[in-house]
Amino acid sequence: MTTAPERLPAQEGTGLYVPEAATIVRTRDLTPRDKVFVVELPGRRNLGHTPGQFVQVSVFGFGEAPISVCSPPEKKAAFDLCIRRLGGVTGALHALGPGDKVGIRGPFGNGFPIESMKHRDVLIVAGGIGLAPVRSVIDSVFLNRGDYGRLIVLYGTGTPEDILFPAELEAWQLEEGNEILVTVDEPNSEWKGRVGVITTLFSEVKIDPVNTVVAALVGPPVMYRFVLMELEALGIPEEQIFFSLERRMKCGVGKCGHCQIEDQYVCMDGPVFSGTQIKKLHESI
Amino acid sequence: MRQQAVIGESGVREFLGRIVERTRVMAPVRRGKTAFDFQWVEDPGEIELTYPRTVLPPKKALLPPRETLLEFRAGPEPTSSPVVEDEPFALLGVHPCDLKAVALLDWAMGRRHEVADPHYLARRRAATIVGVDCLPDEYCFCTSVGSNDTREGADVFLTPIGGDYLVEVLTAKGEALIEGGTGLRKPTGAELAAAESFPQEKARRMTARIDADWRDLPCLLDAHYDSEIWERTAERCYSCGTCTNVCPTCFCFDVNDTVNLPLVTGTRRRRYDSCQFLDFALVAGPHNFRPDRVDRVRHRWFRKFVYLLGEHGMPFCVGCGRCSQACTAGISLTDVINAVIAEAKKGTAV
C-alpha cells in the first residue's frame, strides 16, 4: 500500500512561479504596435533556449504573458522578444524602456526540431507576428549556414505597415541559397510587392518535398488548415511539417489547463507539433 | 497496515477532540439544514463523520479556491517572494472517492509533466488524512469508476461498524496523529468481519452507475465524438462552471495580479477556473478554440474519461456525484455518459 510521502515528490524549492528580474537593454519599434525588447538575465546569463521556445514575461500588477523568444540560441548574453501591444500585460510592457525590469520565467515548451533540419532544405511559413518566433530558426540557420540546405521564407501580413523585420527580410534575401517571398492582403499606394494571402506564394517556389523540413506559424487556425493543405499538395510528408500553436497559458508548466488540446498541453508537449500530431487532434487548428 | 483498533461510539468525540487539541483540523460540518462542507473546526462536536457528501470536496484544503502564489513589490527594482503554506493539519472524514481524488491530484499537481507545484505540494505534505467509509445516496457511483474501496493517500482509515469504528492506522503520520488516543481497543473477530463486509454493503446500495466498464470509455467516447448527445446536453447547460467548481479532481486555474494601495506592493493569486467558461480557451485575435457550448460540454466528459484517463490510467472522475447534484440545469454526469453508451450499443446491434 502506497503512502502519501512516497507517492509525492520531494519539495524541491518554492520558486516555480517566481519570475527572475531581467533588464531591458534596448527596444526597437517595428510597427506602431510591435516592439522588440532586448532582455538580459542577471549576470548576462544565457537563457539557454531552443528556437520556438517561449518565456513567461511578467509585469507585476498587470500579470504574465507567454512570449516566444525571437533571437537564436547562438545569441547568449541577451535574448529578443517581439511583443505586440494587445492587452493589459503587453500594454504595460510597451510602456517600458531601456533600464526597466521585467520578470522572466522559462524557457518553456519543446521548440522546433532544429537538429532534424540540418543538411536539409528549410521552409519557413509565417503569417503576421508569426515571423517573430520563427526568426529564431531563420537566424540560427544563418549562423550555421553550412549545416543547412536552401532557406525559403514565405511571409504574409495584412498590410505593408504590418511587415516585421523589413531590413532583416532584405538581408536574408541577399544571401545565395535563400528565397524570401513576402505578400500582403491589402496593399497601400507605395507597395510594389505581391498581393494575396500566404497560400498564393506556394506556387512561386520549387520545393524538393523529400528533403524539406517545414517550420510554420501562421496566425488564425483557418490559415493553418490552408497551409497544411498546400504543404501536403507539394508532397511534403506530414512528419516533416512542424506547426507552432498559440494558446492561452497562465502557468507555462503544465498545470493551469488553459492550453490543453485533448490530452496535449501546448506549454509542455508543444508549442511545436508535427503535421501527424495536428491531424490527430480535433481542436488543434 | 501498522495497526487496527476499534473505537466505541461513546469514545468517538473524545478521540476526535484529542486530534483537534493537537493540530489544526479541517473536517465536514453541517451547513444549514441539508448541506455539509469541509471547514476548519475548533469544536470537535461540530465534526460530522456520517454525511452524504460535502458541497466542496476536501480539495479545498490542498488547492484552495483562491490562494496567493507570490507577494511582490513593483517599481524600478521589482522583487517577489513565494507564499507557501506548510503548517501541519489534519484532514478528517474524507470518503474513499475523495481520497482517490486527492491521489489523482497528487499526480496532476505533483508528478505530471515532471513538475511539482510547490504550493500544492507543501500543503499536501503538511496534511495528515483520516478517511472514513460511507454509504451511497442516489448520486453516488464510485463503484463504476474504481474508487469505492480505496485507502489511497489516507494515513488513518475509519470503517463504521454500527456506531463504532474500526480504526486502521496506515502510515507513520497516522500513527503520530492518534498516538496516546484513549478508548481504543483490540477488534473482535466479529468486528473485523463486519468492517470487511462494509464495501459489499456499500456496493449493494449503489443505485447510480455507468453502464460500461470504465476501461472501455475512451474508445466508446472517441467513437461518439460527433454524437448529438453533446448538442442536446449543451442545449440545457448554462456554462455556469458549477460542475468544475465542485469537482474533486478538477485543477485548472487562472492567475491574476492584485495591487495594494498605493500601487507599490501586491499579490499574484490563482483561483479556480472552468473549461466551461466562454473565455477559457480564448486567445488574442481574438480566436476561441472552444467557442460553442457543445465544444466545452464535450470537453468535460472527454477530459475525465478519455484524455486524462489515457495519460494517468484511471478516470479523472471518482463518482462522488457532486456535479450531478449541484448542476443548475439538472444535468446528470451518469445520464449523459449512459446515453452515449446506449447509442453505442444500438449502433452495434444495427
Percent helix of chain B, as a range, is 25-40%
Q: Beta fraction of the residues of chain B?
A: 15-25%
Query: What share of the residues of chain A does DSSP label as strand, in percent?
Result: 25-35%
Order of strands in the sheet with the most strands of chain B? 3-2-6-7-8-9-1-10
Whole-number total of structural domains of chain B: 2
Note the gap between the termini of chain A.
44 Å
Structural class of chain B: alpha+beta
- What is the number of helical segments of chain B per DSSP (H or I, 4+ residues)? 12
The succession of helices and strands of chain B, N to C, reads: EHEEHEEEHHEEEHEHHHHEEEEHHH
Task: Write down the Rg of chain A.
Answer: 19 Å
Any chance you could write out the topology, listing elements then pairs?
The complex is a heterodimer of chains A (285) and B (350).
Chain A (H helix, E strand, L loop, with lengths): L3 H4 L12 E10 L4 E7 L13 E6 L3 E6 L10 E6 L3 H7 L6 E8 L5 H4 L3 E7 L3 H13 L7 E7 L8 H9 L3 E7 L9 E2 L16 E6 L3 H13 L7 E4 L15 E2 L2 E2 H4 L2 E3 H6 L5
Parallel strand pairs in A: 7-8, 7-11, 8-9, 9-10, 11-12
Antiparallel strand pairs in A: 1-2, 1-6, 2-5, 3-4, 3-6, 12-15, 13-14
Chain B lengths: L2 E5 L4 H11 L1 E8 L3 E7 L17 H4 L3 E8 L5 E4 L6 E6 L1 H16 L6 H9 E6 L23 E6 L2 E6 L2 H7 L5 E2 L3 H17 L11 H7 L4 H9 L5 H5 L6 E7 L5 E8 L9 E2 L3 E2 L4 H20 L9 H5 L6 H17 L1
Helix pairs in contact in B: 7-10, 8-10
